[in-house]
Amino acid sequence: MDLPWNDERSNQFITNVGLITSDGPFGPNVMACEWTHHISYKPGLIAVSLGHTKATVENIRTSKEFGINLCASDQSVLASVAGGYTGAKYNKVNALKELGFEFYKAKRITSLMIKGAVLNIECRLYKEITLGDHITFVGEVIEASNNPDKVPLAYHGGKYWILNTNVVKPSNEERDRIKKVIEKYSR
Ligand SMILES: Cc1cc2nc3c(=O)[nH]c(=O)nc-3n(C[C@H](O)[C@H](O)[C@H](O)COP(=O)(O)O)c2cc1C
Questions:
Q1: How many distinct structural domains can be found in the chain?
Q2: Residues in contact with ligand 1 (CB, 6 Å cut-off)
Q3: CATH number for the domain including 113?
């Protein structure tokens, strides 16, 4: 069965907002991508899942590289612009600069990177896989840095959120009790 965009069930996921920077036939570009996932530690691999028609797809296919900038809580306007307009028709990077957002030159790739993001990762294309109606680009991490002063923007139900309440883990006594129950069911 299908699980369409904006369906109440699809909207139950909590995701981050990856801002994918790229450079290629459409020039310097940035798109918002909630399907941005860390999928391997050694080597560090990140998967992004993009619709077939995105300008970013052509940019990545040509350049074989892309940047991942995890959106910070004070960058929701950036996410909306990057996610609301296509680089096929608009120079979003220049528009965003005029709106006050800053980009910087990447160390190892041609794509620009975004200042003030929670995490900046430069990727070399590792694999392209078509899965259903999206294309998964897996990037190998070749440069990574984070910004400890920033908090990530979360995405849920088509809205942006800030995570600000920590769910307390069980006490030591409670953990002991859980462990005893688990042990009863060991194979
Ligand atoms: C918060 C947010 C998350 C998004 N996540 C994705 C995603 O995971 N995959 C995708 O293909 N498009 C996603 N989009 C839509 C693209 O960002 C949008 O189609 C954009 O215009 C594509 O840009 P491009 O054509 O310049 O590459 C998202 C949009 C927003 C606002």
A1: 1
A2: 17, 29, 31-35, 49-51, 54-56, 79-80, 82-83, 85-88, 155
A3: 2.30.110.10
Whether residue 37 lies inside any domain: the answer is yes
Q: Which atom of ligand 1 is nearest to the CA of 50?
A: 11
Kindly state whether residue 52 falls inside one of the protein's structural domains.
yes
pLDDT digits (tens, 9 = 90+) for 71-124: 999 999 999 999 999 999 999 999 999 999 999 999 999 999 999 999 999 999
Ligand 1 centre and the CA of 164: distance in Å?
A: 25
- For the full predicted model, state whether its pTM sits above 0.85: yes
Answer whether residue 15 is part of any domain.
yes
pLDDT in tens, 4-52: 999 999 999 999 999 999 999 999 999 999 999 999 999 999 999 999 9
Nearest atom in ligand 1 to the alpha carbon of residue 59 is 27
Among 19, 33, 37, 89, the mutation site with the greatest number of ligand 1 atoms within 8 A of its Cβ is: 33
Ligand 1: nearest atom to the Cα of 35: 8
Any domain includes 2? no
51/56 Cα distance (integer angstroms): 9
Residue span of the structural domain in which 90 resides = 10-184
